[in-house]
Design goal:
Blueprint (H helix, E strand, L loop, with lengths): L2 H5 L2 E4 L5 H12 L4 E6 L3 H13 L3 E6 L5 H15 L4 E4 L17 H29 L2 E7 L10 H20 L5 E7 L6 H6 L1 H14 L8 H13 L7 E4 L8
Parallel strand pairs: 1-2, 1-4, 2-3, 4-5, 5-6, 6-7
């Protein structure tokens, strides 16, 4: 792909203001993608700050608010994107949420917890993919869903989180069939990532202690950073003959389970 061709591309990254989403936006910009839509729900300041930074670097970056768990909000966002930019080439379904609940505490898993996690992590990815599909078909574009090792193993912040991420893996496979041959759909599954996510969940001191221990176990002797996951995301967006696949990015730790 030439630099001119890349400059014409439009990418949408949900939850794009912070962490993995921010790193994905920055990596797309580095790859020459000309227009990047930074979706956010509540992180308005971070989204606008990133848009300003990318715009200074020569990218047409726009922060767009939408709650991806709300179908009407999603449809309005993509209607706006289609009207203003006329195309979508890449969709990164990155936005996610969780709740810190010990697996054995089943009583703490309330209907409200299920509704929130399913609504954002799984249904949100579906609503965005469905709303973007007509635009992606026109460009023969690609989707990458951000899943997790928690969707494969009995690990993670909570039981519902792991279940929703397992759903994202199956959604990836199913959408790959549903949208073929026009749109490719893949996913990345992250291990533990130093992104601020875990620090907020358990506190900086606890996470620092846990990550120091975990780093000694990982074959590559460190934990991932958001840029590692973003590298996988952008690579899958560019792979023209790969669909329905998941890329595990965990430094080889999954080999030891």
């Amino acid at each position: 792909m030439t630099s001119t061709e890349a400059a014409s591309l439009v990418a949408v990254v949900t939850g794009g203001a912070t962490g993995i989403g921010r790193a994905a936006c920055e990596r797309l910009a580095d790859e020459g993608v000309g227009t990047i839509i930074i979706n956010y729900s509540r992180s308005a300041e971070a989204a606008e700050r990133l848009a300003g930074s990318l715009s200074t670097a020569g990218v047409k970056a726009h922060a767009v608010q939408a709650d991806i768990s709300d179908l009407a909000s999603v449809e309005a966002m993509f209607e706006r994107i289609g009207g203003e930019f006329g195309r979508v080439d890449y969709l990164v379904n990155n936005a996610g949420t969780t709740e810190l609940i010990p697996f054995r505490d089943l009583d703490a898993v309330t209907p409200a917890v299920w509704e929130r996690l399913l609504g954002t992590n799984l249904l949100g990815s579906f609503w965005c993919s469905r709303a973007a599909a007509p635009l992606l078909k026109e460009t023969r574009g690609a989707i990458v869903n951000v899943a997790s090792i928690a969707g494969m193993r009995g690990v993670g912040s909570s039981l519902p989180y792991g279940v929703t991420k397992a759903g994202v893996l199956q959604l990836t496979r199913s959408l790959a069939i549903a949208l073929a041959p026009d749109v490719r759909v893949n996913s990345v599954s992250a291990g533990t990532v130093r992104s601020g996510w875990h620090e907020k969940l358990v506190g900086e001191d606890v996470f620092a202690e846990r990550s120091e221990h975990e780093s000694t176990v990982v074959p590559l002797k460190r934990l991932a950073v958001p840029e590692d996951i973003a590298e996988g995301v952008v690579s899958l967006l560019r792979m023209s003959f790969v669909t329905g696949q998941d890329l595990l990015i965990d430094g080889g730790q999954g080999l030891l389970y």
